[in-house]
């Protein structure tokens, strides 16, 4: 096996014996086979209209290969068979890409090709979340085929770089599509306080990013005496009016994905994984793990459904059987806070744009930071907690994705009635952050790079890769990134990104704050 797609890759170079994530070699090899079959499908679809089934397979196939999504070789092999059947309908002569060539060749070319593939894996997750809500963008769909086909071809470094920038722009369209799908279905997010107290009685913990799964579970548990708690990337669900209206959507349990083995160990409740990030479940709770859509783990109960309509009764019955705690339990975030705030998406932030602009002009707000991205297990990720704690009082912290659990329970005060930490949502809500930045730049009649705004990002998996490519494609410079640079970026590619985009690897919170605010 070979895999270097995530931040925790073995030795900062690549997993070759077993994944640090727990991915077994047979799973890794089958995931490579899946990628190569998708390239074959894209070759077969060239010049033809591929159709709904093929489009779905492309999205779901790429999504399946994202870190911590699918650990089940049987499911991957079944997907490959379906892809081959679709390919044969389109063109019997088209061949799969050779898995032996996926990660080999000239170092810089492998680096650029891998960056495109990994970005596309991330975008597939967003496209799938939009598709289950009935939203597709033909340009995004077409680009999956274009990108997959390109992965199986020879290109110069310049051509790969051009493809990466083109991809970054199409990923913006994909994030916009998902923003539109979410807000048109569930309403515009509103600032919402979320408790970390779990009430006595049966409950279910829901993690991952898929709001439709949560919505269906809320409908199916209504009036049954089973409470629902979000976990990880599901926290922003509380901000959406059409989800928040359910009184039994009670609060948030736990923190970011890498703490799940500790947090899920002793709870008297089942956990539903709607997307990444699933860690190998410990035997003490594996019978309480339920997966759905592309997420799968051998032995865990998988809930499927046609047309994305699902029957969650086995999960609900498990919650009733386990019964929950006999009294209320107060949990806290990693810094001891008992409440979290979410729901500061573009609509809310832009509705107070006048106040924000006045505060900047009057000098009350000196700088904005977008401190966001993925969380992970590395000790160096304390950087993000310290960065927020050490940021001067006249600065505002916008955040998104699961990296926020490093600091979202901190109370660092307000500026002009606005909290200094504003949670804009999940990782795909980077779209919201971009819209806010663009609107501020218009208000100040300057470019986004001239705003008193710095992006301080944390990365772990492939959605962070597609978001970074979008930011670079938009010409956003001076981004700080950590906790370490991706193993798939070769030294030459890093040099290009540093010289072209002033990309900075993080150092220490003190040094970086000083450099940014000087
Ligand atoms: Fe966090 Fe994991 Fe959102 Fe990433 S829950 S690292 O998938 O996509 O962020
Ligand atoms: Fe290793 Fe990450 Fe790949 Fe898992 S996803 S095998 S940890 S590089």
From TrEMBL:
Signal peptide: none annotated. It holds the Pfam family Prismane. This is Hydroxylamine reductase. Its EC number is 1.7.99.1. Binds 1 hybrid [4Fe-2O-2S] cluster. Binds 1 [4Fe-4S] cluster. Keywords: 4Fe-4S, Cytoplasm, Iron, Iron-sulfur, Metal-binding, Oxidoreductase. The lineage of its organism: Bacteria, Bacillati, Bacillota, Negativicutes, Selenomonadales. Its main location: cytoplasm.
């Amino acid at each position: 096996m070979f895999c270097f797609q995530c931040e925790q890759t073995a030795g900062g170079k690549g997993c070759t014996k077993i994944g640090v994530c727990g991915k077994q070699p047979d799973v890794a090899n089958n995931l490579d086979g899946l990628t190569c079959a998708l390239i074959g499908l894209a070759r077969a679809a060239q010049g033809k209209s591929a159709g709904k089934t093929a489009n779905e397979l492309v999205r779901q196939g790429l999504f399946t290969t994202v870190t911590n999504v699918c650990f089940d070789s049987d499911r991957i092999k079944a997907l490959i068979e379906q892809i081959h059947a679709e390919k044969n309908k389109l063109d019997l002569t088209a061949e799969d890409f050779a898995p032996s060539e996926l990660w080999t060749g000239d170092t810089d070319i492998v680096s650029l090709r891998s960056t495109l593939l990994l970005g596309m894996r991330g975008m597939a997750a967003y496209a799938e979340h939009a598709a289950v809500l009935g939203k597709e963008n033909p340009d995004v769909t077409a680009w999956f085929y274009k990108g997959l086909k390109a992965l199986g071809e020879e290109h110069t470094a310049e051509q790969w770089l051009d493809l990466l920038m083109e991809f970054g722009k199409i990923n913006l369209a994909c994030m916009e599509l998902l923003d539109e799908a979410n807000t048109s279905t569930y309403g515009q997010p509103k600032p919402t306080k979320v408790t970390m107290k779990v009430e006595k009685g049966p409950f279910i913990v829901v993690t991952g990013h898929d709001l439709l799964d949560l919505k269906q579970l809320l409908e199916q548990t209504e009036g049954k005496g089973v409470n629902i708690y979000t976990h990880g990337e599901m926290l922003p669900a509380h901000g959406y009016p059409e989800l928040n209206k359910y009184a039994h959507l009670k609060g948030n349990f736990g923190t970011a994905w890498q703490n799940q083995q500790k947090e899920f160990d002793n709870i008297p409740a089942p956990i539903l994984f709607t997307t990444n990030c699933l860690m190998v479940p410990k035997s003490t709770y594996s019978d309480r793990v339920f997966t759905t859509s592309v997420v799968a783990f051998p032995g865990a109960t998988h809930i499927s459904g046609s047309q994305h309509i699902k029957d969650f009764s086995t999960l609900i019955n498990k919650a009733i059987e386990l019964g929950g705690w006999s009294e209320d339990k107060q949990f806290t975030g990693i810094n001891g806070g008992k409440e979290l705030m979410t729901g500061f998406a573009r609509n809310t932030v832009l509705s107070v744009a006048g106040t924000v602009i006045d505060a900047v002009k009057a000098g009350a707000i000196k700088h904005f930071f977008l401190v966001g991205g993925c969380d992970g297990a590395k000790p160096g990720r304390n950087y993000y907690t310290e960065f927020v704690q050490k940021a001067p009082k006249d600065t505002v912290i916008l955040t998104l994705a699961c990296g926020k659990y490093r600091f979202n329970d901190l109370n660092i005060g307000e500026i002009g009635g606005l909290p200094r930490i504003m949670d804009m949502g999940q990782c795909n809500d980077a779209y919201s952050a971009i819209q806010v930045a663009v609107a501020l730049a218009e208000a100040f009649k300057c470019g986004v790079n001239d705003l008193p705004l710095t992006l301080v990002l944390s990365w772990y998996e492939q959605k962070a890769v597609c978001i970074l490519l979008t930011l670079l494609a938009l010409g956003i410079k001076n981004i700080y990134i950590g906790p370490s640079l991706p193993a798939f970026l070769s030294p030459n590619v890093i040099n290009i990104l540093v010289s072209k985009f002033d990309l900075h690897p993080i150092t220490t919170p003190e040094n970086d704050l000083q450099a940014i605010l000087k």
